[in-house]
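Sample log: HEXXH motif-containing putative peptide modification protein.
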Amino acid sequence: MYYLEGSQEILRNCAVLSHPYLNGGPVTQQALRGAYLRLLKELAPAGAYARYLEERLEGDAADGPPVTLYTDRQQETDALAEVFGLGDDPRPTGAIASHQLDKCRAGAAFLAERDGELAALVSLLTHTVFTLPASWTGSMSERNAIGATLVIPDEHWHVNDVAEAFLHEFTHTALFLDERAKGHFQAGADQVLLRSAIRKDERTLPAVVHSLLVATEVLTWRHRHGLDEDTGFRLHGSTRSMLERATESYDALTSLPAWREDIVKDRMFQLVESAGKHLSAL
């Protein structure tokens, strides 16, 4: 979304969706942030996560460091894990490993150093970054918890892997908002199965489209900032293999019968076509 559409389109979606929750007065960054959080509270499923968001509304600041790591308290991470569908998953007990917090902070700083505009957008739309003790590594976002980002870094991840995790999940967040503002898929799109550009397994079409757009954003990030194979990519794999998978996904999606007419809406058709052009230029 950021590289495909630019920051103004992302901000426009946020402003349009959040407008009913503005309290009057000038529309400052802080006012937009407050309205956005009130929107997310209304969208949140009832339960511990909704109560968590209610508390986040108090004393929130949008002018802090980019991508602040907001919570590592167990009561809060338990509420977040539940809305992410991880509430019943067996997880290692004990404290969060220090390298997880350190790498999350370092990855946020790495992102901000290289693209302050992107980092400011991530900070505006991300209300919480959290990590958990876990037997796996990676990152997650959830359409029922827009604005929350889970990052579980491996101790051997390069700092860019963490930055890419933030970009990956921010792209999902921006797409969730764009879908609410404009509409992305026709009924039945989730019945179509294709191979993902990120996880490489068979997934529903909306997930595959998201993976294509995420891959395009990550590849563009690497290209613009001169991040080559010597970086040792661990989260998303090599640039070459990622570009091949993304191109395969684009070809598979756009080769589907009645792709434009019966599966996606005009907005998503536009985004996928833009991704195809970006990929061919890399």
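Observation: The mean pLDDT is 89.
Observation: The CA atoms of residues 184 and 265 lie 5 Å apart.
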